[in-house]
Write a structure and sequence with these properties.
By secondary structure, the chain is mainly α. It contains three helices and two strands; from the N terminus they run E-H-H-H-E.
Length: 66
């Protein structure tokens, strides 16, 4: 799983405390949201059909451009 962008956590906030204000609501994924998404996604990947195989999964904030 590839995580694009910053993560709403201590490391980023200690270096750029205004980043949440700049990004706005849903602009940075939280560590809890990342953990939940990874758990759900890996469960799904484990059960995927060999005839339709997912290779790489990208995780990005809701407001991030594709």
């Amino acid at each position: 799983m590839v995580i694009y962008g910053g993560i709403n956590g201590h490391h980023l906030l200690s270096r750029a405390p205004d980043v949440i204000k700049r990004r706005g609501e849903d602009g940075l994924p939280s560590t809890d949201a990342i953990a939940e998404t990874i758990a759900e996604t890996y469960g799904s990947l484990h059960r995927q059909s060999p005839t339709a195989w997912a290779h790489e999964v990208a995780l990005r904030p809701f407001k991030a451009p594709l």
